[in-house]
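Q: Hi! Curious about what Chromosome partitioning protein looks like structurally. Here's the sequence.
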Amino acid sequence: MKMSELPAVERHVKLSELGEFANRLSVMTDELRDQILAPRPRKTSPVFTIGELSEMCGVDRQKINYLATKEGGDLPPGQAHGTGRARIFTLAEARNWVKQASSIYQTALVSGQGRHRGRVLITANFKGGSCKTTTTMCIGQGLSLRGRRVLVIDLDPQASLSELCGLYAEKDVTWEDTVLPFIYEPTLEGGLSSKVQSTYWDGLDVIPAHNYLHDAEFHLPTAQKDNPKYEFWSILRRGIEPLRAQYDYIILDTAPSLSYLTLNGLMAADAMVMPLVPESLDFISSVSFWSLFSEIAAGFVEHELDKTYEFISVLLSKVDYATTSSAPVVRSWAQRAYADWLSTVEIPASSVMSNGALAFSTVFDLSRADGVAKTLARVKQPLTEYCKWIDDQFVSQWRAEA
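A: Let's find out. The predicted structure is below.
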């Protein structure tokens, strides 16, 4: 018996058909976002137990309970929870405790004294899927839990960081809300300060992104061509400078390419973090980044535009510790290549973390009461250590400035 032939699939695609296709996908993604992020508020910050507060502040549990319930005390009392002496604290209350009760040095921004100069960090990597955006958000959250005031700036037209901050990149954000108006007109009144938005996370603000940020890749080189004296690499640095007095940290998330906006970020930053998944293609991609950036940097140096990074840190992320993993081999490559740049902290892979990403969440978003929070402790703990390491690099400088 002769089998009937299946009809051939029509695979031709016209440019004129892509608009309808994109509209269809847009409707679909809007529906998915509504399912994942609804109901409003789209994201809520976690709550903290006395045990967690004890770890954050380095203060005995009994003392925290005493200070929380002390009549006329200055510290937030939290809310009684369950039976016995259990209490829970909001994120804002927990940060208040860290500022007042911990031994963590608090900056002039908190104390209101001295000339405070916040530090600018940038996360950069050519390779997609390197956890760059998630790492940016986690560093921002982790530093805020040390009492720091943090601003994250999304420079990636994909706007994933903006989504992690609880914004619909295409619905809640227009191009005017991004850094783009300042790129067009660096003398804009209010500068980048007027673009700052608060988020669901106490102590963390955002300047979001929009897909129109791609326009910067046309505007900046055109402006340079029209005016050879135009310093395209310094626009973002000048826009960020006034914000240093308002934040302890300003963290830039970049596109997975060495774009004009990324170059602006690299020239504005005081320090750089490169998340690196220990797989062969990711490692080779990281080598390509440094090869290309070094060529561009050489051009800057020729024009006496050399700069110094406080540190460059390569952070191994999504590390698979299974016996069949390629991580040990690639780790050895990274150790040879990056030496002291390679952080001793590693962020392990976690299937639960991947599921969290689908919900536009990070490990810091979950409370201990959540079912998967304990599972994520092995990811959260090294991230907390890494944030402390970053913070320690600048504390001595802030003490001198105070």
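A: A fun detail: The chain has a mean pLDDT of 85.
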